[in-house]
Amino acid sequence: MVNFRTEFKNFLWLVFASVLFLLLVPVVVWGQEQPLDIIITEGVEGAIPVAVVPFESSAAGDPPQIISDIIEADLARSGRFETVPREDFLGQPTTFNEVRFKDWRLLKVDAVVVGKVSAAGGGQYDVQFELVDVFEGRQMTGWRYRVDGGKMRKVAHQIADIIYKQLTGIDGAFDTRIAYVTVQKTASGGANYLLQVADSDGYGPSTALTSSQPILSPAWSPDGSRLAYVSFEGRKPKIFVQNVADGRRVKLADYSGINSAPAWSPDGSRIAMTLSKDGNPEIYVADSSGGNLRRLTKHGAIDTEPAWSPDGQTIVFTSGRSGNAQIYRMNAGGGGVSRVTFDGKYNARASFSPDGNQLVMITQRGRGYQVGLLDMRTNATKVLSDSRLDESPSFAPNGAMIIFGTQSGGRGVLAAVSSDGRASQILKFQEGAVREPAWSPFNRKL
């Protein structure tokens, strides 16, 4: 008789090794302005038609960023909007009073975005925009900003968030960030692993950590100020917590054996993780500084990949205690373990939607590993992707989109799919392989 415990351990390590192999694909560090191509592979049928008119600029010289282009790109990549080609425009208004409603009604446009950018001195700009309802002939909303030139892209994302909220009723998540891992080939033939942070559209990438050893499982703190991750520095897995702004970090876990899969509690005070310090991989929880370590599970099977519910009362995790990898849940203090997934050969790497009603996970249904979404109210699972080697799904903070790692053209890329499965896109960095994405919480500050 085959010993499942041994077989499941071997399987997990094979998956782990395959991820490391994928990370070894050579990468070149990209520039700030054109880091990736966003390929919309499927949009929502009946998407809202919107026109984003180029903003008028009275500044001497071009502003640091083209605000209207960024807004238009954000709305288009959400999959919920159909942006009207600018060559079809019958006019270029810059204020509500200049909008000729009959022109836009001919184009069957629901809403028009107009605005202006002007220099305010001292490297600052005044930015104003208005969102106009074409069929009702009214201004839906309008805002004015004064910002440093270096924050022009950020204010464009915030404007896109306002428009998204106004037209869909859902908070926008364009003014957020993503963390991910990539690899840079060295002159000697080795590799440097980079933990990167960028805007949600991939622009403005910065490197939080460079290492000659693998980096895995980045996880954002609830306030977006810190990242927890696994680093194999010294050829041994350790968990670190790092301040994103200044790079300061502390070592959270460096026990014998496995230290992996950090996950923040919703209030940021605790981190759940997987440790094998007592022999078998189990779920533990500690203060965010590493103190008050407490073991939550005790079972002969492997327990790993914890994730907290939004209310902090429940932790889901991956376990082999049923004979193959499935999702279980327990009380956040331990105990009350019950199985969650029953459909599919393999279900792992689960995390909650922001409203706590769904779980996103990696599932196997006979043809590889895809992103699946489990409705906790009906216990029904929907497969959202159609590729064969997906990993690390992560919800946007508004719950509307899910980012994950996958394969395209023989290399690792990031992809995103709407939580209803109707819109999808590939985020293809111009050079190299990218893995292990994590979507940040909301960021409301300028």
Main beta-sheet annotation: 6 strands, mixed
Seen as an oligomer or otherwise, the chain set is single chain
Note poorly predicted spans: 1-34
CATH superfamily of the largest domain: TolB, C-terminal domain
Number of H/I helices:
4
CATH architecture of the largest domain: 6 Propeller
Give the total of beta strands. 31
Based on helices, strands and strand pairing, what is the structural class?
mainly beta
Classify the beta-strand content into a percent band. Answer: 35-45%
Helical percent range?
Answer: 10-25%
Distance between the termini: 61 Å
Number of domains: 2
CATH class of the largest domain: Mainly Beta
Average of per-residue pLDDT values: 88
Radius of gyration: 23 Å
Describe the structure.
The chain is mostly beta strands. It folds into two domains: 4-30 and 176-439, 6 Propeller (Neuraminidase), CATH 2.120.10; 45-168, TolB, N-terminal domain (Rossmann fold, 3-Layer(aba) Sandwich). Helix content is 12%, strand content 43%. The strands form seven sheets. Strands 2, 3, 4, 5, 6 and 7 form a six-stranded mixed sheet that branches. Helix 2 (67-77) packs across helix 4 (152-168). The longest helix is centred in the N-terminal third of the chain and has 20 residues, at 4-23.
